[in-house]
Amino acid sequence: MKIFSEIKQIQNFITQIKLKNQTIGFVPTMGALHQGHLSLVAQALSENNVAVVSIFVNPTQFDNAEDLKKYPRTLEADAELLQTLSKDIIVYAPSVDAIYQNKVVAQHFSFDGLEHEMEGKFRDGHFDGVGTIVKRFFEIVTPNNAYFGEKDFQQLAIIKKLVEKYSIPVKITGCKIHREASGLAMSSRNTRLKPEYKKVAPFIYKTLQSAKIKFGTKSANKVTEWVSKEFAKQQLLELEYFIIADVKTLKTVKRKSNKKNYRAFIAVYADDIRLIDNIALN
User: Is 23 exposed, middle or buried (0-12, 13-18, 19+ CB in 10 A)?
Assistant: First the structure.
């Protein structure tokens, strides 16, 4: 396994790959890898000649300095985990200085309003940070294909919009949410859950599944009210938001239409750990 930290190193390597007419599949991550990440990397390996995984905790997408400080950094363990899939995976783990050149500032983007919905309302500047780092990595790695998990569905939609707006020649593939046996969506943050919170956290997905069933016969407002009441009974979980949105615009649905696809999105605090999830409704 090759681990690159310098931009020139990875670019020289990629030049050699491209000279052989080989394709590159790219999986950007913030490290603390789990089986959800591995499922993305496995797909990148199966559909390309070379898989590149970036491991970089991006400071500009954190609106909470404490969350950035606490975010797990486990490069050695991540590399070992990736080796269980393949010894040929390329890891790109740059420093903050290498990426931002001593100016840790996010570029400002317009994603046609996608950035103002859901997460955008609760995490100021988050998607400017995401857009900045993903665009930068696409410029450095120049992949043919890039893979993102549907757990961050809004992020996936925004990256597709980024690629469209900046005419970046990369195909974006969204991959299914990988879940623990309990149903809890896999996240690097799950490792920080205290036992009592880990035990109750699967309630999030169970509630989403029930909401999906109810959405078949009830209005979006009625389902939203029901979810709020269910979380009010849960002492250890604090609901930040539950939103039923149009898949294309991510705008909250006011009245259902048979011609549109909808998804339910949720953000919940388990102690000080913020967990997100979503489910297709139709």
Answer: middle
Q: Which two tokens stand for residue 216?
A: 């078949």
Tens of pLDDT, residue by residue over 220-253, are: 999 999 999 999 999 999 999 999 999 999 999 9
Identity of the amino acid at 113: G
> Cα–Cα distance between 163 and 224 in angstroms, integer?
33
SS3 148: strand
What is the rounded CA–CA span in Å between residue 255 and residue 247? 14
Choose among 100, 106, 282, 81: nearest CA to 191. Answer: 81
Decide the pairing of beta strands 24-29 and 273-280. Answer: unpaired
C-alpha 97/C-alpha 109 separation (Å) is 22
Rounded CA-CA distance 209/206 in Å is 5
Question: How far is 57 from 73, CA to CA, in rounded Å?
Answer: 8
34, 37, 108, 116: the catalytic one is 37
User: Nearest 10 degrees: CA dihedral of 171, 176, 180, 186?
Assistant: 40
Laid out side by side, the sheet with 237-246 consists of 237-246, 262-270, 273-280
CB 80 within 8 A of CB 91: no
For residues 63 and 141, give the distance between their C-alpha atoms in angstroms, rounded to a whole number: 26
Predicted structure pTM score:
0.95
Q: What are the tens digits of pLDDT across the range 38-66?
A: 999 999 999 999 999 999 999 999 988 89
Catalytic residue status for 37: yes
Pairing of strands 145-149, 24-29: parallel
